[in-house]
Amino acid sequence: MVRKEALVTPETRPLLRRAHQIVNSGDGEYAFTDLRRTTLGGVQTRQFRLFTPVSRRRMRLPTSLPEFTELRHVANLSDSPVTVAAQLGGQWSDHNLAAITHVAACNFRCSYCYVDYAHLAGADHFVASADAVVAEFVALRVALRRTGRRLSLLRVSGGEPLLAPSLVLEIYQALAVRGLLDSVVLKVESNLSTLTYAWRRSGGHPGAGDSAAMRGIKLHTTLHHPPDSREWPAIRDGLALALEIGFDVFPAIGANDWTTTQFESLYSELVRISPGLPLRLAVRPFHLDYPALADRRRLPQPTPGEAPSVRWEGILRRRADVGYLAEPRHLIPLT
Ligand code: SF4
């Protein structure tokens, strides 16, 4: 059952209204950041940059796998290649390359966001249809294949992609039309706070075919605000709606500055939406060193014994009798 839309509305949050207008350009087109105008790494074209999800040097590891589990409290969980391998076959290391496109606006301004704030407000944007995005992805994939590299992960990031749920669905459908769903996985990164508003604006209810399509989309969401924040109701309602629509949801938090009460409350909120959600939660240390972060407030860095993931593991063991990342997240069902 979808909850009533939270108190976060375009009237109370001008950034939401503005960001929604920027990303939804009209006539089946959407606004993306021209990546050649950013300081982000791996830029290939204005539409795409390349990214290696699992990196031992950067301590981004699939720590739900037995060979990395000892590092689960010090490394950033990065498990997209594991999920892709589960869906497409092969080993995770066969799928350790993503092409990322960034929509041109977001309704939040997180202090640790690695995107320049100007690029969360439509600066340096261009417009393209979902079909054009997929055509560019295919061209990049072909070029990489000539050099012996395999590209099987298309990631839509931002900005906030779920300002335009229709973009995500249309990209998935364009992959399907090209017969690519057995060799490409679509991953979307979202803060989820915009979904109830944007979904309603885009028509409100998926058809049966749309819901089936959504189930093939991996939705990675960082819950940027704790349960006692004014942003939480919109995030919580977006999470519940995402599950109802059918997205395969992978939640995460940073939470370096969260209190124990906020952690306990998060567990209660997540388990109420779906018993599987707390077990899917990634607790990331957010050790980031992107240029855009150089002059922003630094988050407090806890000692290893006080790491948020250690505290979360304590809650999981006490309330669910299970360890943190006890098994790969895609194996945990969401009902
Ligand atoms: S929600 Fe994501 S894209 Fe938006 S400001 Fe926060 S980190 Fe950046």
Automatic annotation (TrEMBL):
Alphabetically ordered keywords of this record: Iron, Iron-sulfur, Metal-binding, S-adenosyl-L-methionine
Keyword Iron tagged: yes
Domain Radical SAM core: 91-325
Listed InterPro entries: Aldolase_TIM, rSAM, rSAM_sf
Keyword DNA damage: no
GO MF annotation, one: catalytic activity
Stated name of the protein: 4Fe-4S single cluster domain
Organism of this sequence: Micromonospora humi
